[in-house]
Design brief:
By secondary structure, the protein is an alpha/beta fold. The chain has one domain: Lambda Exonuclease, Chain A (Alpha-Beta Complex), CATH 3.90.320. Helix content is 42%, strand content 19%. The strands form 2 sheets. Strands 1, 3, 4, 5, 6 and 7 form a 6-stranded mixed β-sheet that branches. Strands 2-8 form a two-stranded parallel ribbon. The C terminus is likely disordered. Bound molecules: iron/sulfur cluster. The site of iron/sulfur cluster has 13 residues, from helix 2 and helix 10.
């Protein structure tokens, strides 16, 4: 049985060979994924710290403590933190409520496999479920690019499967700390849900049965892949600020899926 995540589906869609190296062979990543490597690493660390601050705020840690902590972390964390507080004041006023579930895992059977996602925040309210996802990527993607990411399709379809709600009761909001005025919100429909779930099932079945894992034919992606040296696809890492729009940043942390039980509602 395989426990799929949105990043596994995204990786396989991008390059089956990258999926094999990363998830089947668990090969260590031999080259910096993007350049300048130090700046990219700093960006990722800041993203992790920001997510931790947001989680602590939503579970109800005292705002003064978090303010102090954010100030100690310096920029850009402090600016992101203040923007987060302004943009999510109604949610933060309900911090600690059981209706707010921060860093929350949901999962569902997927044929003989499972599909699992860890949400930055799930807000359960009388009208349905709203999923929040915080981003710290420097660049704001277009709505079309964000809507077509596996993350969007997996989160919304999985929310329908897990909640038993109608697709129209599910919403997904992306909020960018780097562009705090722009919340990109997605509504869902029965048609979109049926299309997404069928696509997810098809891709999971294809991956489960795969014996060959070809290299991507889109060689521009190799510049942002750590496995370039395995594949003889160049030495030079791509600049993370120049990454193609359809190449989302890697998730901040991979879940240890085997450790997470399914969540029943
Ligand atoms: S270097 Fe290119 S072909 Fe090789 S795993 Fe990475 S994306 Fe795929």
């Amino acid at each position: 049985m395989i426990t799929f995540s949105q990043s596994m589906l995204q990786t396989y869609s991008r390059c089956p060979q990258q999926y094999r190296l990363r998830y089947l062979l668990r090969q260590p990543w031999p080259a910096p994924e993007r350049e300048p490597a130090l700046e990219y690493e700093r960006q990722r660390k800041n993203g992790e710290r920001f997510h931790r601050l947001a989680q602590q705020a939503l579970i109800g840690l005292p705002p003064a403590t978090l303010e102090h902590h954010a100030a100690a972390l310096g920029e850009p964390l402090l600016t992101w933190w203040h923007a987060f507080r302004r943009a999510h004041a109604p949610l933060l006023a309900a911090a600690g409520s059981p209706a707010l579930r921060a860093e929350y895992a949901i999962s569902s059977p997927l044929g003989e496999n499972r599909l699992l996602a860890k949400l930055d925040l799930l807000h359960i309210h009388p009208q349905g479920w709203t999923i929040y996802d915080w981003k710290t990527e420097a660049r704001l993607p277009t709505r079309a690019a964000l809507g077509s990411r596996w993350q969007t399709r997996v989160y919304m379809a999985l929310a329908v499967r897990t909640s038993g709600l109608a697709p129209e009761q599910i919403r997904l909001k992306y909020w960018y700390a780097t562009h705090p005025a722009a919340t990109l919100e997605f509504a869902y429909t029965k048609t979109a849900y049926e299309r997404d779930w069928a696509t997810i099932q098809r891709l999971a079945a294809e991956i489960s049965a795969a014996r060959d894992f070809p290299r991507t034919s889109d060689e521009r992606l190799c510049a942002w892949c750590n496995y370039r040296s395995y594949c003889n696809r160049g030495q030079q890492a791509g600049d993370w600020q120049q990454a193609p729009e359809d190449l989302p940043e890697e998730p901040l942390d991979e879940l240890d899926f085997e450790q997470i039980a399914e969540i029943a509602f």
